[in-house]
Amino acid sequence: MKKKSLATLWLDGCSGCHMSLIDIDDRIVQLSESFDILYSPLVDVKEFPEHVDVTLLEGAVSTDEDLEMVKKIRRQTGMLISFGDCAVTGNVPAMRNKFELEQVLNRGYIEMSPDNEIIPDQYVPKLLDKAYPVHHIVHVDLFLQGCPPSADLIFDALSEIAAGRTPVLSGRTRFG
Amino acid sequence: MSASVKIKTLTIDDRHVGARENQTILEVARENGIEIPSLCYIDGLSAHGGCRLCLVEVTGIPQLLPACMTVVEERMEVSTQSERLRKLRKNILELYFSERNHVCSVCVSNGNCELQDMAGETGMDHVHFPYLYPDLGVDITHERFAMDDNRCIMCTRCVRVCDEIEGAHTLDIKDRGIETRIITDLDQNWGDSETCTLCGKCVHVCPTGALFEKGKSVGEMSKRRQFLPYLALMREEKR
Ligand code: SF4
Ligand code: SF4
Ligand code: SF4
Hints:
The complex is a heterodimer.
Chain A: E1 4-10, H1 16-22, H2 27-32, E2 35-39, E3 52-58, E4 61-63, H3 64-75, E5 77-83, H4 85-89, H5 101-111, E6 127-132, E7 142-144, H6 151-162
Parallel strand pairs in A: 1-2, 1-3, 3-5, 5-7
Antiparallel strand pairs in A: 4-6
Chain B: E1 7-12, E2 15-20, H1 25-31, E3 55-58, E4 65-66, E5 77-79, H2 83-99, H3 114-122, E6 138-139, E7 145-148, H4 157-165, E8 171-174, E9 181-184, H5 201-205, E10 211-213, H6 227-238
Parallel strand pairs in B: 1-5
Antiparallel strand pairs in B: 1-2, 3-4, 3-5, 6-7, 7-10, 8-9
Helix pairs in contact in B: 2-3
The structure holds iron/sulfur cluster (3 copies).
One iron/sulfur cluster (SF4) binds next to helix 4 of chain B.
């Protein structure tokens, strides 16, 4: 069977979902027979490829850079998977959403760091008004819930996709 | 059961079942091992009919009926699992998650929550409505318990148990629609309540992480509600 191409990355996430991906342990060898990992923190490639079959996207969409990236990923991906609760619901990054953006920045840069007087407006991505679940910005094809999704769930989902089937996860997953 | 109780026969999901008159569809379904989802209904308290998850279809009636409030009738044909109902239940759950702030991963009830479980069971794996992110607080003034409005689904179980079983009526409801909130006494801090007996019944009937014991951290709050049917029975016998 022809190998599928895979990309994995995180936006506003803690990398925990990627830790869970690594937790599939030696089964990663099995997956590498079905997938070529073209882009990921696990491989050293700078540019998101022109086309990948499957992307595991961890994290919420929180900055202007995330926004650009998620649109690009959508254009260049066959099957986009919201990977973990931050991507699916906004989760912890979205806990700032009930506050105004100025309040959030002030809290982070001024109130919490007495020696600092400025909120940087250069060299760091600009925060959006809110942290968004991925599917509120672009179309998402599959949702892997969990904070993080379990290694077994990730493995089973990717195995199903490798076999050309749509994973049926209903009843097997939940938020949190 | 007294000899004068009339028996009605009906079908639920094409199964023939018998019921005592005055029983609700939900009671009869559960007695017969047919699971109809619900969040506000709890065995031992009066029915409230608020969560809308137990809506069912009855042949010949165009609108959907709440199973917990609808008394059985002879030859009723009830359907509990149609595609239409499945979709509706998913949508209702999405509304719960979008209306207040639910962050399961950091919630005291993570892994022990009826709302979270129900979302899992019905396959509600993402919310397509915009989240409202209301600015809600947590009342931690009580010496033993805390109330987190962010996680409340307004099922009113706590209000009913405090009134019907404990007899304190510390808890009540204020305002309407999306502004509805649970209050203690005359909308005072729970810690200042003169009526609360500290019994903890409200905490243990609460299906979510909205009511919890102080000192419980993420995922540590599990509820024990075996006491309820027993206490309800005792009260009934006293009457
Ligand atoms: S109350 Fe339940 S659904 Fe809400 S955040 Fe807590 S665990 Fe999740
Ligand atoms: S602890 Fe008991 S008395 Fe106090 S509010 Fe809860 S149910 Fe009512
Ligand atoms: S506090 Fe708990 S029991 Fe009371 S209405 Fe809210 S969710 Fe229901």
